[in-house]
């Protein structure tokens, strides 16, 4: 029996997920030896027809990263679904929509205006804007239509497993690869990483008070954090308590609080809502005016609590089949 | 008009493409570099706290996040009128030079490498990372992977994460180094310097000692006389982290030198209907179309441009390599696009020497890593500039009195090169593709013109849709695709 | 504005105060707009922001949450404060996401304030009628 065939692919991606995969460095050679990488555009050539020629289910697994932002992405995603036994959504963008998901404004016309007519240094007296179909002198160039918002992968196809993170850390990626190779396939919908929140692996956990009570929230540039003491206890917003662990608390070790890129814990549908509940519960105030004033120190709850997960939130998420 | 699509992959719509149109004689009439995605960064930054911008803007690109992160944090310094502490500045510069080493090395060995190390006319199946490993041997390949990994591991230690670091705050950085770190850093500096010297050697062996490839590098097909732009220090030497922006004209005379706060006076952007990228050009020279020369405002950035705007290099070995470079090429500014590859390798050496200098400085290990900003400046505007691996990168922020974002402008490296890239592709296409003869090896010659710029299409449209798989299409006069190729970013 | 539009309101009332007020309104034969579906919870402190989002997702044009008067009426001591803090953050989040925050109303109605309850429900129903049906992608995801 030949080596299991796998594929890697990206949609609307910043490239960080690819970098994180390559960052397993020397272990990459072990992976390359254990599997037959049939599709890997970042390193190997690839045609659509390569994918079409595969038998249904011929790929044991494919790792797809990036959000879905146009119909071409959707077509390829559906093709991968057909040709793969297991589809794995890799990274925050394909799992939850990611940071591009913050762009949910439906007002594309005003975006075009802002970028091409009102840009700070744009010189455009003829008011030229990019068009979907450009024709001139026998030349014809098409630019595709973009969806009105980024979609997470499971809004367009059925997804088996998720590898969280922005980007996922190499250990979580390796865990996913090794689990699949071992044959001990987890239940559908399984999210790799830890079953527990980030606090469990945080080096500052011992200094977290039994009952966290914060009188005032500070923005990170307003304070110099003591690197040996729980950041939450020092008054900055750290989303560790509501975020899935598995990243080894890299940001905390880098001197900054967690921003939630690994997403929610088991069974939580809407990450941001849980984050709101959590911050509300640790605020130490029983005075309505004081509460309002203190919470004004969080000027951007949407961006703070839904930074990586807005498309997957209850505000937006569609189930597969709803999406036109 | 015939249109040839260079694409071993017909995945047009979702990604970028190069469209080449042939006339009735089968020669190239026009070529277009089409970037077909836009995500609207300008929209969704509004209402966000400006101190979140370093972490948010870097998601534009997972290959060069440190560049955006650093430009962003410098824009915050400017916004809050706060200077980083000396220790913080050293930490930022250390992080930045480590990043330049590993990013330039990634491009040289993995992205451009297949063309140079395996050979531009080698069959497509071998022109990839696997082919490189075969050519250089598994030991050398392991050495390259290992060295890059140790650089990236150190970046993780200093900056929190390698991909999407967290170290930047206005007035400083988030994490201090410890005196005990000195030994490891000096070891790493030594390894990086050795690596960069070996890389320069590899380049010389593979290109300079190989007449065919050297001639290709010096081919008219790849030559443009444009203006060049880059950051310099007070001695007009190549500088990545900070300095005024210097522009030289095609003859090498200084055309302009200005602090980033004045960029709006010198730079402008041009729009075309067939692509989402905005083409940067010199405002006062003017947009004259896709032509080069002194009267056209088209500029060039990135390694070749940076060397062209510099009088010398700030570190000894790099400076020696700089002299050797211009002696060999025989002109300054060097106008041969493929010489970007050589310039890139010289910059790896410079970055490694800078790292060596920085880690010797005792202040790097100090405890004072931040000046707390007081309030947003009167104009509520901040400007930050760095030299990203791919060229000059500017972040400009406008906020309210609390520092909450109202607007931003991003001038990114690859858009600064976009016009010249279009020129390069068209010239290479016209030179190599004649009378309907479109063999694969020829197509690769056109792709090489594009790859030399190490373009980051993710950054080019400051869209968070990121890396592209790029199609190259050649069309006949019915608009049908007669040949197609793919270029991975 | 659609004259035939009947707003759908979801009301989340705490058991100890506002639900009792609703019972009182019932036994007193008070009439008020029938547009409201009441959901009972022991304490507003239990109210998860997800409940409100589910309500909008599944057809609600307006949501009203009411509990016991601060500072000292809450049966569980400070559940109402816990709710209020969530409400402040959620309200701003709704606005940022493009949903008019007036569609989420927050009240304190004690067991004896049946009049206030009637007034508030009537007022809120009319406010939502004037705002019109909720038009936002949140509706497209309804299950």
Largest sheet of chain A, described in full?
A: 6 strands, parallel
Lateral arrangement of strands in the main beta sheet of chain A: 2-1-3-5-9-10
What is the CATH T-level topology of the largest domain in chain A? Rossmann fold
Quote the average pLDDT of chain A: 88
The run of helices and strands of chain A is EHHEHEEHEHHEEEEHEHHHH
Order of helices and strands of chain C: EHEHEHEH
What is the CATH architecture descriptor of chain C?
3-Layer(aba) Sandwich
For the record, what is the CATH homologous superfamily label of the largest domain in chain A?
NADH:ubiquinone oxidoreductase-like, 20kDa subunit
The number of helical elements of chain A comes to 11
In the residues of chain C, how many domains can be counted? Answer: 1
Q: Briefly, what CATH class of chain C?
A: Alpha Beta
Percentage of residues in strands of chain C: 15-25%
C-alpha termini separation of chain A: 40 Å
What oligomeric state do these chains adopt? heterotrimer
Structural class of chain A: alpha/beta
Calculate Rg of chain C over CA atoms.
Answer: 15 Å
Secondary-structure content class of chain C: alpha/beta
> Describe the biggest sheet of chain C?
4 strands, parallel
Low-confidence stretches of chain A: none
Mean pLDDT of chain C: 91
What does the model show?
Chain A has three domains: 5-100 and 149-191, Rossmann fold (3-Layer(aba) Sandwich), CATH 3.40.50; 105-146, no CATH class; 198-305, no CATH class. Chain A contains eleven helices and ten strands. Chain A has helices spanning 16-22, 26-34, 48-53, 71-83, 92-96, 108-117, 170-182, 250-253, 271-282, 288-295, 301-305, and strands spanning 5-10, 36-39, 59-65, 68-70, 84-90, 133-136, 139-142, 146-151, 161-163, 190-191. In chain A, strands 2-1-3-5-9-10 form a six-stranded parallel sheet, with helices on both faces. A two-stranded antiparallel sheet of chain A has the order 4-8. With 489 residues, chain B is α+β, with helices and mostly antiparallel strands. Chain B has a domain at 224-335. Chain C has a single domain (9-132), classed as Rossmann fold, CATH 3.40.50. Chain C has four helices and four strands. Chain C has helices spanning 15-27, 49-57, 79-96, 114-131, and strands spanning 9-14, 36-41, 62-67, 104-108. Chains A and B meet through helix 1, helix 4, helix 6, strand 7 and helix 8 of A and strand 3, helix 1, helix 7 and strand 9 of B.
């Amino acid at each position: 029996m030949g080596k299991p065939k796998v594929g890697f692919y990206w949609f609307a991606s910043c490239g960080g997920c690819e970098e994180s995969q390559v960052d397993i460095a020397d272990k990459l050679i072990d992976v390359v030896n254990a599997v037959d990488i049939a599709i890997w555009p970042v390193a190997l050539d690839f045609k659509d027809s390569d994918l079409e020629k595969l038998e249904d289910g011929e790929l044991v697994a494919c790792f797809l990263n990036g959000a879905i932002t146009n119909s071409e992405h959707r077509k390829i995603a559906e093709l991968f679904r057909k040709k793969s036994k297991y589809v794995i959504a890799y990274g925050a963008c394909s799992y939850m929509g990611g940071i591009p998901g913050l762009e949910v404004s439906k007002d594309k016309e005003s975006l075009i205006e802002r970028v091409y007519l009102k840009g700070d240094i744009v010189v455009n007296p003829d008011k030229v804007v990019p068009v979907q179909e450009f024709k001139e002198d026998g030349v014809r160039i098409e630019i595709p239509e973009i969806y009105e918002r980024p979609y997470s992968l499971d809004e367009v196809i059925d997804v088996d497993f998720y590898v969280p993170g922005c980007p996922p850390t190499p250990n979580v990626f390796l865990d996913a690869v090794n689990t699949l190779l071992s044959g001990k396939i987890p239940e559908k919908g399984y999210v790799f990483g830890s079953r527990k929140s980030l606090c469990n692996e945080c080096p500052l956990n011992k200094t977290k008070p039994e009952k966290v009570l914060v009188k005032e929230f500070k923005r990170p540039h307003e304070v110099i954090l003591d690197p040996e003491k729980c950041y939450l206890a020092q008054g900055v917003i750290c989303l560790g308590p509501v975020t899935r662990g598995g990243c080894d608390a890299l940001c905390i070790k880098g001197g900054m609080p967690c921003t939630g890129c690994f997403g929610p814990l088991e069974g939580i549908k809407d990450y941001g809502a849980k984050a709101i509940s959590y911050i509300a519960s640790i605020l130490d105030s029983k005075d309505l005016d004081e509460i309002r004033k203190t919470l004004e120190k969080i000027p951007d709850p949407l961006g703070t609590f839904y930074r990586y997960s807005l498309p997957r939130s209850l505000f937006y998420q569609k189930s597969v089949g709803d999406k036109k | 008009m015939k249109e040839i699509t260079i694409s071993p992959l017909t995945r047009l719509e979702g990604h970028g493409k190069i469209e080449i149109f042939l006339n009735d004689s089968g020669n190239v009439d026009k070529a277009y570099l089409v970037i077909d995605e836009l995500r609207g960064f300008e929209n969704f930054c509004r209402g966000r706290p400006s101190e979140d911008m370093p972490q948010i803007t870097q998601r534009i690109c997972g290959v060069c996040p440190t560049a955006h992160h650093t430009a962003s944090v410098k824009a915050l310094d400017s916004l809050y009128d706060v200077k980083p502490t000396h220790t913080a500045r050293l930490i930022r510069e250390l992080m930045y030079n480590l990043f330049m080493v590993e990013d330039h090395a990634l491009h040289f060995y993995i992205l451009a490498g297949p063309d140079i190390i395996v050979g531009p006319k080698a069959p497509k199946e071998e022109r990839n990372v696997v082919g490189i490993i075969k050519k250089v041997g598994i030991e050398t390949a392991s050495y390259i992977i290992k060295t890059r990994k140790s650089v990236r591991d150190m970046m993780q230690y200093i900056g929190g994460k390698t991909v999407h670091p967290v170290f930047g705050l206005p007035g400083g950085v988030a994490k201090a180094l410890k005196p005990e770190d000195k030994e490891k850093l000096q070891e790493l500096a030594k390894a990086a310097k050795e690596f960069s010297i070996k890389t320069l050697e590899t380049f010389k062996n593979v290109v300079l000692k190989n007449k065919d490839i050297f001639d290709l590098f010096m081919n008219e097909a790849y030559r443009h006389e444009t203006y060049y732009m880059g950051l310099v220090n007070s001695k007009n030497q190549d500088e990545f982290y900070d300095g005024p922006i210097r522009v030289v004209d095609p003859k090498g005379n200084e055309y302009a030198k200005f602090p980033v706060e004045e960029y709006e006076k010198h730079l402008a952007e041009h729009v075309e209907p067939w692509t989402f990228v905005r083409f940067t050009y010199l405002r006062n020279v003017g947009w004259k179309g896709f032509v080069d020369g002194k009267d056209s405002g088209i500029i060039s950035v990135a390694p070749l441009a940076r060397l062209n705007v510099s009088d010398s290099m700030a570190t000894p070995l790099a400076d020696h390599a700089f002299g050797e470079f211009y002696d060999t090429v025989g002109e300054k500014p060097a106008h041969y696009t493929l010489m970007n590859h050589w310039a890139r390798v010289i910059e790896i050496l410079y970055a490694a020497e800078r790292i060596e200098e920085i880690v010797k400085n005792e202040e790097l290990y100090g405890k004072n890593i931040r000046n707390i900003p007081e309030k947003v400046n009167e104009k509520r505007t901040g400007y930050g500039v760095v030299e990203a691996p791919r060229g000059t990168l500017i972040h400009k922020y406008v906020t309210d009195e609390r520092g909450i974002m109202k607007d931003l402008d991003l001038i990114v490296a690859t858009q600064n090169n976009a016009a010249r890239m279009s020129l390069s592709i068209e010239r290479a296409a016209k030179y190599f593709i004649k009378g309907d003869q479109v063999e694969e090896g020829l197509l690769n010659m056109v792709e090489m013109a594009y790859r030399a710029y190490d373009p980051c299409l993710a950054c080019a449209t400051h869209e968070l849709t990121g890396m592209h798989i790029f199609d190259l299409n050649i069309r006949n006069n019915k608009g049908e695709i007669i040949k197609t190729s793919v270029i991975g970013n | 504005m659609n004259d035939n539009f009947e707003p759908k309101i979801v009301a989340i009332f705490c058991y100890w105060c506002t639900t009792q007020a609703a019972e009182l309104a019932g036994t007193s034969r008070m009439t008020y707009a029938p547009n409201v579906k009441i959901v009972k919870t022991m304490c507003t402190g239990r109210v998860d922001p997800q409940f409100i989002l589910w309500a909008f997702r599944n057809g609600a044009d307006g949501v009203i949450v009411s509990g016991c008067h601060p500072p000292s009426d809450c049966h569980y001591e400070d559940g109402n404060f816990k709710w209020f803090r969530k409400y402040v953050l959620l309200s701003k989040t709704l606005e940022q996401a493009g949903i008019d925050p007036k569609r989420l109303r927050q009240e304190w109605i004690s067991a004896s304030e049946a009049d206030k309850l009637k007034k508030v429900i009537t007022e809120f129903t009319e406010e939502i009628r004037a705002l019109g049906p909720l038009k936002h992608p949140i509706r497209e995801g309804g299950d």
